[in-house]
Design brief:
GO terms for molecular function: DNA binding. This is Helix-turn-helix protein. It holds the Pfam family HTH_3. This protein is α/β, with parallel strands linked by helices. It folds into two domains: 72 residues, lambda repressor-like DNA-binding domains (434 Repressor (Amino-terminal Domain), Orthogonal Bundle); 201 residues, Endonuclease, Chain A, CATH 3.30.870. The chain is built from twelve helices and six strands. Strands 3-2-1-4-5-6 form a six-stranded mixed sheet, sandwiched between helices. Helix 2 packs across helix 3 and helix 7 packs antiparallel against helix 8. The longest helix has 17 residues. The protein is globular and about 75 Å long. It starts with 17 loop residues before the first helix and ends in a 7-residue tail after the last helix.
């Protein structure tokens, strides 16, 4: 079949964004449904198999003309669906978006997660030592980053206030209309490990209590006295669900964080294992009601300390 929409076949790795990942999944679903290989799809529009593979992985893109031609040859006639695909190919971030202002605090590996959080309808997270970023109080964020003071001679260095603004900006998704469901399981260590002193921890745990009263936020505590069968609390990960805009089905992804590394896992068996672990931890941890009582007990203890001004 003749190429329908010729374009330069240069394959450059682009930063993955939520839109590009969703578009890639839709293209992959269309290819599977039509039993079309990536190589054959490339021939339809005059590009290489590697170009199609990059689009599917979320690291490449197609021109609007090429995308329209491809989905047309794959049998798509629904104009509304085609419009959705064309909208997904448009990058929602202007050039320099991540490199200006407080957004410089988002390391490159974190940017996809920030993007996914903004379009997710469910987020589930486990935390063993540090309160999850979306639940951190401003003073707690500052205490975490104050030891990392920037070089005073570097005018472009990311400051502590940049880190604070970047994290509080991410947190707005939990408070806006259409906010995602957020479910966190916190080890008791998160609440006992002190950052910034008693006043900061008092503010942080009080903040958790306030957030837990919101209908879209559920917080459970895993006390030291509860054993997690088969472990699971030692891993730090976020389970993200993004609604599908079309035929591919909802995007389910596990984001695994370690020192200096963030991994994005969308392999269904691997995500399914973490989903089962999270559900098991949900059954083992204190209920949301009992977790609130646990945190209220910690707040009373902190308020009784001489370091807290009355």
């Amino acid at each position: 079949m003749a190429a329908a929409a010729q374009q330069p076949d240069t394959v450059g790795s682009m930063a993955r964004t939520a839109r590009k990942v969703l578009l890639g999944r839709e293209i992959d679903a269309l290819l599977r449904r039509s039993r079309t290989t990536q190589a054959d799809a490339g021939k339809m529009i005059g590009v290489s198999q590697s170009r199609i593979a990059a689009v599917i992985s979320g690291t490449g893109n197609l021109s609007a003309q090429a995308l329209t031609a491809l989905v047309g040859q794959l049998g798509v006639t629904d104009h509304d669906y085609i419009a959705i695909l064309l909208d997904l190919r448009e990058d929602s971030h202007r050039r320099g978006f991540w490199n200006s202002g407080y957004r410089r605090a988002y390391i490159e590996e974190l940017r996809l997660l920030v993007d996914l959080e903004a379009v997710a309808d469910r987020l589930r997270e486990t935390a063993a030592e540090i309160v999850p970023g979306l639940l951190q109080h401003e003073s707690y964020i500052r205490a975490l980053h104050e030891p990392l003071q920037p070089d005073p001679d570097d005018p472009d260095a990311v400051t502590v206030e940049d880190y604070v603004r970047a994290r509080t900006a991410r947190q707005r998704i939990l408070l806006e209309r259409g906010a995602p469901e957020f479910h966190a399981i916190l080890s008791e260590s998160c609440l006992r490990r002190t950052y910034g002193g008693d006043a900061v921890m008092l503010a942080q745990i009080t903040h958790l209590l306030e957030l837990s009263a919101r209908p879209n936020i559920q917080i459970q505590v895993m006390p030291f006295t509860h054993q997690a069968p088969g472990a699971g609390m030692e891993d730090r990960y976020i389970l993200v669900r993004v609604p599908s805009p079309g035929a591919a089905g909802d995007l389910e992804m596990a984001v695994v964080e370690a020192q200096g590394e963030i991994r994005y896992i969308d392999d269904k068996p691997a995500v399914g294992i973490r989903d089962k672990i999270f559900n098991r931890l949900t059954m083992t941890a204190l209920s949301p009601h009992d977790s609130r009582q646990f945190m209220e007990h910690l707040v009373r203890g902190l308020r009784s300390r001489p370091t807290i001004q009355r």
